[in-house]
Amino acid sequence: LSSTSRLRLAFHPRSAARGGPPTVSTIELADPSLDLAGVRASLSSVPRVSATRRRAEGLDRQLADAAKAASPYVLFCQHKYEVVHHQLDSTRKELADCLNALQERMDNSRELEACRLRYHDLQLRYNEAVSEFQDRVSTLEAQLAATSSFGVIVPPDAARRKADLESQLAQSQSDLQVA
Q1: Is 130 inside a domain boundary?
Q2: Is 2 inside any structural domain?
Q3: Could you give the CA distance from residue 34 to residue 8 in angstroms, rounded to a whole number?
Q4: Of 132, 141, 147, 135, the residue nearest 162 (C-alpha)
Q5: Domain count within the chain
Q6: Backbone angles phi and psi of 30, in degrees to 5
Q7: For residue 93, what are the CA distances in angstroms to 3, 88, 98, 99?
Q8: Which residues of 103-130 are buried (b: 16+ CB within 10 A; e: fewer)?
Q9: Kind of pairing between the strands at 7-12 and 23-29
Q10: What are phi and psi of 95, to 5 degrees?
C-alpha cells in the first residue's frame, strides 16, 4: 500500500467488553483508487518478485561457484600469458639485435662491393701501366740494339735508365702475380 492510502478501521468496544477479541465492523478506504482488485494484483506480484529474487540469488551462487571453479584455470592462463609475454619480449629483443646485425652486414656488404669495384679499377690501371712500361722497355731495347749494332757507345745514364725500367717492370709483374 502506498503511504497516502490508509485504512480506516472502526472497532466495536462491545466485543472487547465480553472478553473476546475486538472485531472490525467496517473498513473504509481513504484512497478510492485502491480497491480489492488492485490489492490482489499487488499481492499476486509478490510471488513473482520473490521467485525473481530467489532466481537472482541462485544465479549469484552459480556465478560465485563458477568463479571459484574457474579460479585455478584463470591462474594457469594468467601464468601462461605471463610466460608467453616474457618470451615475446625476449623474441622482440633478439629480433632487434638480428636486424641491427643484418644492417651492419648490409653496410659491410656495400663497403665490400665498393672495395671490389675500386680494386677492379685499380687492377685495370695497373695493367695499363704495366703495358706502357713493357712498350717503353721494348722501345728502349730496340733503340739499344740499333745503336749497339752501329758500335755506338751507350751513355751510362741510358743504361741506368734501362736497368731502372727493367726493375720496375719486374716489380710490376711480381705485384701482378701476387694480386
Answers
A1: yes
A2: no
A3: 13
A4: 141
A5: 2
A6: -70, -30
A7: 71, 9, 9, 10
A8: eeeeeeeeeeeeeeeeeeeeeeeeeeeb
A9: antiparallel
A10: -60, -45
- Angstrom distance (rounded) from CA 167 to CA 126: 16
Q: pLDDT tens for residues 75-134? A: 999 999 999 999 999 999 999 999 999 999 999 999 999 999 999 999 999 999 889 988
DSSP annotation of 20 reads S
* Residues 6 or more apart whose Cβ sits within 8 Å of residue 13: 22
R_g of the chain computed on alpha carbons: 59
Picking from 75, 96, 130, the residue at the C-terminal end of a domain is 75
**Cross-strand bridge partners of residue 8:** 28
Cα gap 179→166, rounded to integer Å: 20
Beta strands in 22-103 (DSSP E): 23-29
Write out the residue range of the structural domain in which residue 143 sits.
121-178
Task: Please count the residues of the chain.
Answer: 179
Domain annotation covers residue 97: no
DSSP state of 150: T
pLDDT tens for residues 16-68?
555 655 555 555 555 555 677 777 777 888 888 889 999 999 999 999 999 99
pTM of the entire structure? 0.39
